[in-house]
Amino acid sequence: MPADKSLSRLGIAHRAPRQRWLRLLPGLCGPPVRCRDAEADRAFFRDVLDYPHVDAGAGWLIFKLPPSEIAVHPVDGPPVHELYLMCDDLDATMAQLTAKGATFAAVTEARWGRLTKLRLPGGGELGLYEPRHPRATEL
What we know:
It is a single chain. The chain is built from 4 helices and 7 strands. It is of the alpha+beta class. It has a domain of 96 residues: 2,3-Dihydroxybiphenyl 1,2-Dioxygenase, domain 1. Strand 5 and strand 6 form a beta hairpin. The two termini are 13 Å apart.
């Protein structure tokens, strides 16, 4: 498999064998959702997004996430981390979630996909997008 030229000059292959990185880091803990109303946001993830979960005690729900990707982007200002959910069809996903009470910002078009912001009851937002690029979740 050809290595990425920018990494190969550092002696790093662009894609490690699957078993090797799974042994090193067998899971990904998504970023915590910081909000003003944790109970409302937990109910939203449980009831609107239908995410499976476990109760870690005292109603503290930990949700299973779908397959993930991480992209690293340069910034000119302070570093910021964002969370985006992916879907295959943005319009259909928005229609399904709207029927369950979800609200969204306007859809925008980007080179890498169509995106919107999903508003959470606790005051925050999550990105939601339909990618136009190859998906690393299929590796």
